[in-house]
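Severity: low
Component: inverse-folding endpoint
Summary: output formatting inconsistent between runs
Steps to reproduce: submit the following structure tokens with default settings.
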């Protein structure tokens, strides 16, 4: 553990006002009561910087890119400075034996107390030899590092669910962190990559309350993954009216209509993109005219069909309902409205998965 966090922030010129604003925003995003912002600020200011060990396994470094992509002074950067990042291959200056020494020193000095962050999946094929660091397999390293960790953050869809490395035919035998570690608290922060403020929000929660946030049945923090993209999408009124873009350059696309028929997976994807947006709140995929790919759901790559609408009959007459028949006679507008109704029914069915709807 390092000195109180507030010392670090003051040294970096972060004003009290900026810090309070950040905490209020974070508390709001986590749906905490209004008073929680100040409580969070006080707890964070007094918090000692915990040791964080970040292990990269089968990954593309996109999660680290996302975490560090920031503008100055950044909310993400503030949180990044709130921890003592004792090992991170990509970001640390040390290399080779020096880096490995730093890893072992951090694990020894902070045994039982450090936060372990992992990005990337773990290959189990040919005894784990597909991915090694300093001559040791990922699975071996994970087991050792997890044993001394207070909690584990599986950062990104690869660590959370196996991600792209696990996609068929999964040549390396990739698995998720939770498939290997069974005796430690784990929080999944999926996304390809995850949203920076979601990553830092999870860390801030841990620093403030000393525990992981509330999780859903896929170990995702409900504060950020409790709703679907579709629940909070600004194009939702068009969906409800049955107004869909049919191509990326038709009149509907120009008018900003719903992207469902262009393959948007927002109705079955739990993530915070529609509210936090990306790049400092500048925009997000749907706002840029492209449907959600479902990157924060398990098996999103194998589910595929990125430009195929979720389970929609090609011919309205095949919908088998009187309303569809009326739609076929009365014109496209009515049939599309009935499709929207069907889509809404599908979207509200909580047990429906992305893979189910792609069948
Ligand atoms: S289907 Fe996609 S574009 Fe349409 S409202 Fe839902 S999330 Fe938004
Ligand atoms: S909009 Fe969908 S695919 Fe794009 S980053 Fe968000 S959850 Fe992932």
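Observed output (run 2 of 3):
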């Amino acid at each position: 553990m390092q000195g109180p966090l507030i010392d670090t922030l003051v040294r970096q010129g972060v004003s009290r006002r900026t810090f309070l604003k950040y905490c209020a925003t974070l508390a709001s995003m986590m749906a905490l009561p209004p008073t929680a912002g100040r409580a969070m600020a006080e707890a964070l200011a007094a918090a000692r910087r915990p040791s964080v060990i970040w292990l990269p396994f089968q990954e593309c470094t996109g999660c680290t890119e996302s975490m560090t992509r920031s503008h100055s002074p950044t909310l993400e950067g503030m949180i990044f400075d709130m921890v003592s990042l004792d090992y991170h291959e990509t970001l640390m200056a040390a290399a080779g034996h020096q880096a490995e020494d730093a890893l072992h020193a951090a694990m020894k000095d902070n045994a039982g107390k450090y936060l372990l962050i992992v990005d990337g999946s773990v290959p189990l094929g040919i005894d784990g030899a597909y991915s090694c660091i300093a001559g040791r397999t990922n699975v071996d390293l994970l087991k050792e590092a997890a044993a001394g960790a207070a909690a584990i953050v599986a950062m990104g869809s690869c660590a959370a669910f196996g991600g792209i490395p696990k996609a068929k035919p999964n040549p390396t035998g990739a698995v998720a962190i939770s498939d290997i570690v069974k005796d430690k608290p784990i929080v999944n922060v999926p996304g390809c990559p995850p949203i920076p403020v979601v990553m830092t929000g999870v860390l801030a929660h841990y620093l403030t309350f000393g525990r992981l946030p509330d999780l859903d049945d896929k170990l995702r923090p409900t504060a950020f993954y409790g709703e679907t993209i579709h629940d909070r999408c600004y194009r939702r009124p068009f969906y409800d009216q049955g107004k869909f873009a049919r191509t990326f350059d038709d009149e509907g696309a120009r008018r900003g209509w719903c992207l469902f028929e262009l393959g948007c997976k927002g109705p079955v994807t739990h993530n915070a993109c529609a509210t936090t947006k990306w790049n400092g709140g500048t925009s997000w995929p749907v706002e840029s005219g492209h449907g959600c790919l479902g990157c924060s759901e398990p098996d999103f790559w194998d589910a595929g069909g990125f430009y195929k609408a979720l389970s929609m009959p090609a011919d309205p007459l095949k919908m088998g309902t009187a309303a569809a028949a009326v739609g076929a006679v009365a014109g496209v507008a009515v049939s599309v409205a009935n499709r929207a109704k069907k889509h809404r029914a599908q979207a509200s069915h909580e047990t429906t998965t992305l893979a189910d709807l792609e069948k």
